[in-house]
Amino acid sequence: MGDEFVDRALARTSGTHQEALQDAITEHVWNGVWSRTGLSRRDRSLLTIAFLTATRAHAELTGHVRGGLTNGLTPDEITEVMVHAVGYCGAPAALSAMAVAQDVFDSQKSSD
């Protein structure tokens, strides 16, 4: 999702009660987890989309689908995550996550 995304998140929460949480996320997730070398960013994106689908974290899913496309995932691969999720997370989780992903795919298509 990139430095600009993180900078916007930090600026958006600056001076609010959310600031402490955003600082912790930036330190432990963006700087800690995403900067590790054990997995590629592409692989981390694939896993993150699956985890967000499983937990129905749709507010986060939109940005991570965009980030996954930036990190080299294809719409077909992201769709396969949703198909795979049916068996492990259930149809409702997969269907609602696919709707979020489709919105991102559609918005990317219209901006091309």
From TrEMBL:
Coiled coil: none annotated. InterPro entries: 4CMD/NDH-1_regulator, AhpD-like, CMD-like. Pfam families: CMD. Residues 20-103 form the Carboxymuconolactone decarboxylase-like domain. It comes from Gordonia hydrophobica. It comes from the Bacteria. This is Carboxymuconolactone decarboxylase family protein.
